[in-house]
Amino acid sequence: MNKLDQFFSSLPEWSVAMAVVISLFILLLVVKKFILLRVGKVTARTSFYYDKLLVKVISFPLTLCLLALTIKLSEHVVIYFDVEADFSMFNSTARLLIVAALVLFIDGFLTGTVGHYAEKSSTLKSSSSIMQGVTRALILGLGVLIILGTMGIAITPVIASLGITSLAVALALQPTLTNFFSGVQLVIDKPIRVGDFIELESGEQGFVDKIGWRTTWIRMLPNNFIIIPNSVLSQSKIINYYYPEKQLSVPVEVGVHYDSDLEHVERVTLEVARDILRTHKWGVPDYQTFVIFHTFDSSSINFTVMLRAQEYFNRFFIKSEFIKALHQRFKEEGITIPYPIRAINYEQEKSNSSGDTKIVG
User: Fold this and answer.
1) Alpha-carbon dihedral angle through residues 190, 195, 196, 197, given to the nearest 10 degrees
2) pLDDT digits (tens, 9 = 90+) for 46-76
3) What are phi and psi of 268, to 5 degrees?
4) How far apart are CA 63 and CA 33, in angstroms?
5) Cβ–Cβ < 8 Å for 182, 188
6) Contact indicator for 208, 194 with CB cutoff of 8 Å
7) Following DSSP, what letter does each residue of 305-354 receive, concatenated?
8) Four-point Cα dihedral 156, 157, 163, 165, nearest 10
9) Is residue 181 very low, low, confident or very high in pLDDT (cuts 50, 70, 90)?
10) Which of 214, 266, 207 has the alpha carbon at shortest distance from 241?
11) Residue 158: band (very low, low, confident or very high) from pLDDT cuts 50, 70, 90
12) What distance in Å separates the CA atoms of residue 27 and residue 69, rounded to the nearest whole number?
């Protein structure tokens, strides 16, 4: 017997059994690493998302499964080396690892799926953290209960205790929870979406930049932010200028002299309006613009021209270009936009000034 054999024969049987088990686990990890690397190179060349997600989230759960497999195989190693051990503990630990691996895999896969769809949608992009948090809380909560049941712990008292604890926490965190669930409501109901241009009940206007856990961020035109609690926003009246679509009508009020030929006025106005909608970069070329005469005013006949802009913010530029073009065209066509007329009754003013001043006391 050489010295190496003498060394191994002098070791305790339990240490040899442990060395075999550890070596087996390391071998399984090396095989797992090799397979995942090969599969990862294949999935990197595809455009499918879920194969990449599967490779990404399966690594750690697979390690737990290999550990559970090693524990089960260690029973045979222990029997071979005639080492005393509690096999019931081995079985319980292996089951616990399998359940934990399954829970972690489902959590990673569902969270990744929610994040993927949120990134593809401009509506859900800023709210992906809310949706991922809710998904993860539900999966991990159920997973903990399943693990407790696997360990032989009665979960009914635990659920009852969680109910009481949750009630106390809910009362303590009522404002925060109200804002959180209001944020979830905003994401699901979609009265506003990220990127929408809205007007608040208080009169402020801006673009929705982010719908967070507790607050919604609105970027105003001067490039500053209004940060509103979700609970306040969900109960407010909101004008969404991007819903159901971004395009909107732009009414322009115009007045002409009473002596004007209204048919001629209408024809000239429509020509100018159609030209602006066709040539301006934010106009809608195929919109059927129209003119409505509606008021005999004190010094003019008033009418409304209806234009169409690509979105709310562009209406200012469309309106400005139309007014300049219409003013120039009216000059060329001899159409008068009258000044306001104010009459002074000189006879009345003379009678009042010539009379004696009467003091009433």
Assistant:
1) 150
2) 878 788 888 888 888 888 888 888 887 777 6
3) -65, -45
4) 10
5) no
6) yes
7) EEEEESSGGGHHHHHHHHHHHHHHHHHHHT---PPP-----HHHHHHHHH
8) -150
9) confident
10) 207
11) low
12) 12
Nearest to 48 by CA among 116, 108, 128, 106: 116
Per the CB < 8 A criterion, the answer to whether 335 and 264 are in contact is yes
Burial 274-301 (b: 16+ CB within 10 A, else e): bebbeebebbbeebebebeeeeeeeebb
Of the two residues 10 and 72, the one the predictor is more confident about is 72
Helix axis angle for 49-80 and 87-120, nearest 10°, is 170
* Residues 251, 310 contacting (CB under 8 angstroms): no
Q: Which two tokens stand for residue 99?
A: 């359940």
Whether the Cβ atoms of residue 207 and residue 218 lie closer than 8 Å to each other: yes
**What are 243-267's pLDDT values in tens digits?**
888 888 999 999 999 999 999 999 9
| Residue indicated by tokens 């001067």 | 222
Please, which residues have CB within 8 angstroms of residue 116's CB and are 6 or more apart in sequence? 49, 53
Instruction: Examine the pLDDT at 7 and tell me if it is beyond 50.
Output: no
| Beta pairing, strands 197-199 & 205-211 | antiparallel
Mean pLDDT in residue range 2-19: 55
Which candidate, 241, 186, 246, places its Cα nearest to that of 216? 186
- Kindly state the DSSP code that residue 283 receives in the 8-state scheme: B
pTM of the complete model beyond 0.90: no
Hey, what amino acid is at 85? A
> From edge to edge, which strands make up the β-sheet containing 205-211?
225-229, 215-220, 205-211, 197-199, 239-240
User: Which of 89-93, 123-127, 214-218 shows the highest mean pLDDT?
Assistant: 214-218
Question: What was the pLDDT predicted at 233?
Answer: 87
State both tokens at 354.
């010539």
CA dist., res. 158 & res. 169, Å (int) = 16
Q: What is the C-alpha to C-alpha distance for residues 304 and 290, in angstroms, rounded to an integer?
A: 8
Position with higher pLDDT, 62 vs 123? 62
